[in-house]
TrEMBL record:
<dbReference type="InterPro" id="IPR010970">
    <property type="entry name" value="Cys_dSase_SufS"/>
</dbReference>
<dbReference type="InterPro" id="IPR015421">
    <property type="entry name" value="PyrdxlP-dep_Trfase_major"/>
</dbReference>
<keyword id="KW-0808">Transferase</keyword>
<dbReference type="Pfam" id="PF00266">
    <property type="entry name" value="Aminotran_5"/>
</dbReference>
<feature type="domain" description="Aminotransferase class V">
    <location>
        <begin position="42"/>
        <end position="424"/>
    </location>
</feature>
<dbReference type="InterPro" id="IPR000192">
    <property type="entry name" value="Aminotrans_V_dom"/>
</dbReference>
<comment type="similarity">
    <text>Belongs to the class-V pyridoxal-phosphate-dependent aminotransferase family. Csd subfamily.</text>
</comment>
<comment type="function">
    <text>Catalyzes the removal of elemental sulfur and selenium atoms from L-cysteine, L-cystine, L-selenocysteine, and L-selenocystine to produce L-alanine.</text>
</comment>
<dbReference type="InterPro" id="IPR015422">
    <property type="entry name" value="PyrdxlP-dep_Trfase_small"/>
</dbReference>
<dbReference type="InterPro" id="IPR020578">
    <property type="entry name" value="Aminotrans_V_PyrdxlP_BS"/>
</dbReference>
<dbReference type="InterPro" id="IPR015424">
    <property type="entry name" value="PyrdxlP-dep_Trfase"/>
</dbReference>
<keyword id="KW-0663">Pyridoxal phosphate</keyword>
<protein>
    <recommendedName>
        <fullName>Cysteine desulfurase</fullName>
        <ecNumber>2.8.1.7</ecNumber>
    </recommendedName>
</protein>
């Protein structure tokens, strides 16, 4: 049987996470037990890509060693076992976000998931999909709304969709502190709005957006809601049904899984009405030389050879997170996030973006060092074995709005200790003196 287990077999841990438990958790992550530039690795770049526990590595290896075959295409034993493992993985991951198995489409990443939506809407707008797909047709005068804090993956696809269909592209601006100007959102979201797309948690600011408020605004005008959940699904409990979003996208490599696997959630009635994005084998019912008919969701969106081993590994990652407990992980990361913000706030010449100390945020902090470019900050920290992200974090418009070109970002996960944060803060305090900035 597959390495991944069903959710019912899991017994989540209880009580708050502390440093002692994190040290035990770290033993499951082989890559963390190394030195970088002669120093113990302090990995604070999980907002970009998380590390993999041993059970996830073993799940993917076990798939290739024991049941590697094409899924949904053969009747031999290996093909049946591969198909079972693939679909069990879908059930596990769908359950993790409160969805049904037929509401989860495998993609390569969240970027592909969002592009899947936009191209499906494009196909509907040129007459593909029949009467069922007419609800997705965009015309000149229709409006697509995003926010000024979006990652490029939840910005550029909507810009391109507007270009292809003639729809108008609009956005909800942010305040000087990066928070959404909710008081002006009702002037942006209006009767012509067809899509409202926004991030659940900002990959730059660390802020958690008011999903309920934005969903209500969208519902009042009959717009579809698309949630970028890349920074929320890995770090806090997410129930897409409770949030009442129409679509949500997230990536496996940010939640302990390998690269090359992500997922799109969509309400079943919407996915089944959407025309496909990619076409080819495995997603059809009948094909003639003149016509093709497509399978229901999610299969209609999974053309070609599927991401089988990656899906199995993502399910193993989800099981690891469930066993640890998402509420516990969220609480621990909030603690680390507050430690980051409070510590950075005590260092001269540091500007921290996003919520202030004491306000809710996920476990990351982006900051600017006065007089030192972010790339130099990152190199200085790397010399000490501390891995962080530098640049605009695929959010150029947000940085431009805040008057910055680039920032340094430290992002935590369940395998980070308070000692990691303290080592990082100690190193940041040395940056300006090292570069001779006063």
């Amino acid at each position: 049987m597959p390495v991944v287990s069903t959710p019912a077999t899991l017994k989540p841990s209880t009580g708050p996470i502390d440093n002692a438990e994190v040290l035990r958790i770290r033993n499951d992550f082989p890559i963390l037990d190394q030195k970088v530039n002669g120093n113990p690795l302090v990995y604070l770049d999980s907002g970009a890509t998380s590390q993999n526990p041993q059970c996830v590595l073993e799940a993917e290896q076990e798939y290739y060693e024991q049941r590697n075959a094409a899924v949904h295409r053969g009747a031999h034993t290996l093909a049946v076992e591969a198909t079972d493992a693939y679909e069990l993985a879908r059930e596990i991951v769908a359950s993790f976000i409160g969805a049904r198995f037929n509401e989860l489409v495998w993609t390569s990443n969240a970027t592909e998931a969002i592009n899947l939506i936009t191209y499906a809407f494009s196909n509907a707008s040129v007459g593909r999909g029949g009467e069922e797909a007419e609800r997705f047709v965009l015309r000149p005068g229709d409006e697509i709304v995003v926010t000024e804090m979006e990652h490029h993956a939840n910005l550029i696809p909507w810009q391109e969709l507007a270009f292809r269909t003639g729809a108008t592209f609009r956005y909800i601006p942010v305040n000087d502190d990066g928070s959404l100007q909710l008081e002006h959102a009702n002037t942006v979201i209006g009767p012509q709005t067809k899509i409202v797309a926004f991030t659940h948690a900002s990959n730059v600011l660390g802020s958690i957006n008011p999903v309920e408020t934005l969903v209500q605004m969208a519902r009042e005008v009959g717009a579809y809601v698309v949630l970028d959940a890349c920074q929320s699904v890995p770090h806090l409990p997410v129930d897409v049904k409770a949030l009442d979003v129409d679509f949500a996208a997230f990536s496996g490599h940010k939640m302990l899984a390998p690269t090359g696997i992500g997922a799109l959630y969509g309400k079943a009635e919407l996915l089944n009405a959407m025309p496909p994005f990619l076409t080819g084998g495995s997603m059809i019912t009948t094909v003639t030389m003149e016509h093709a008919a497509y399978l229901p969701s999610p299969t209609r969106f999974e053309a070609g050879t599927q991401r089988i081993s990656q899906a199995v590994a993502l399910a193993a990652a989800v099981n690891y997170l469930k066993e640890t407990g998402m509420e516990r992980i969220h609480a621990w990361e909030q603690h680390l996030g507050q430690r980051l913000v409070e510590g950075l706030g005590q260092i001269d010449g540091i500007r921290v973006l996003g919520p202030r100390a004491g306000e809710e945020r996920i476990g990351l902090a982006s900051f600017d060092v006065d007089g030192v470019h972010a790339h130099d900050v990152g190199q200085f920290l790397d010399d000490k074995g501390i891995a962080v992200r530098v640049g605009h974090h695929c959010a150029q418009p947000l940085h431009r709005r805040l008057g910055l070109v680039a920032t340094t970002r430290a992002s935590t996960y369940l395998y980070n200790t308070t000692d990691d944060v303290d080592a990082f803060l100690e190193a940041v305090a040395q940056v300006r003196p090292f570069f001779g900035v006063k």
